[in-house]
Amino acid sequence: MLEIDWFLGISAIMFSIGIIGVLIRRNAVVIFMCVELMLNAVNLTLVSFSSFHGNIDGQIFVFFALAVAAAEAVVGLAIIIAIFRNNLTVDVTEINLLRW
Amino acid sequence: MIVYLFILLAVLAIGSALAMVINKNVVNSALFLVINMVSLAGIYLLLNAQFLAVIQILVYAGAIMVLFLFVIMLLNVEDEEKLFDKFRVKYFLAFILGAAVVGQIFYSIAGVTDMLPEISSNMAEIGTVEEAGDVLYTKYLLPFEMTAILLTAAVVGALMVAQYKIKKG
């Protein structure tokens, strides 16, 4: 039968893939998608603990996390559009206005 | 049977996540992320969280990924020419850090699972829409309404940011 360790393992691997993607990719949209991947990995951890403990609260928390992720995606993509309008690029190595 | 289903979904989730990171084309990356979301919804079904599985497909694979694809098409983002053009210390450090995070989380999981109270392999039937709605509209009513305000604020803020006219000169 299924053990909780397997679900947590998948979650850990997905989270780390997200970290590597954020660090090595240069396109701002892809970096944003990697952040969504990390959010999903943590959601998987919450859901697996919730159903193995028989307590619904974790799944409700994931529901709210989904709502916040939707809001975050909307605002983040709007910021990316604004940056693109200023710089005509979404390459994060060329967006260096705030870099010293 | 359920174990084979789990292995299939797990391989699909991790493989599509890897493909998303190492794909040069941005549209392909977004589509691989959709595969990842759908296989994650399947894993939620294995965990008896039917409500969240449906919500995952509706909100993530439906709404958020359409928004991502729309922005990608709108911005006409060009592909990155070469992902690994030459050996860089940055890539090496990124993989070292990723491996370190995996090792750390695995170490924590291995150390803590036998201490958890009464984790049984037969999961309770708690993820149905009835159960979730029952808790959502009684115990978590205030956060639920706050979520509505948050989403409204996010839409208004996104419109303000995206509509902003830049003064030339």
Question: How is this structure best described in words?
Answer:
The complex is a heterodimer of chains A (100) and B (169). Chain A is mainly alpha-helical and 100 residues long. Chain A has a single domain (4-87), classed as Helix Hairpins. Chain A is built from three helices and no strands. In chain A, helix 1 (4-24) packs antiparallel against helix 2. Chain A is elongated and about 50 Å long. Chain B has 169 residues and is mostly helical. Chain B has two domains: 2-117 and 126-138, Four Helix Bundle (Hemerythrin (Met), subunit A) (Up-down Bundle); 139-169. Chain B has helices at residues 2-22, 26-46, 50-75, 89-112, 129-136, 141-163. The longest helix of chain B has 26 residues, at 50-75. The mean pLDDT of chain B is 84. At the A-B interface, helix 1, helix 2 and helix 3 of A face helix 1, helix 2, helix 3, helix 4 and helix 5 of B.
| Coarse structural class of chain B | mainly alpha
Radius of gyration of chain B: 21 Å
Task: Catalogue the unreliable spans of chain A.
Answer: none
> Total number of β-strand segments of chain B?
0
**Structural domains of chain A: how many:** 1
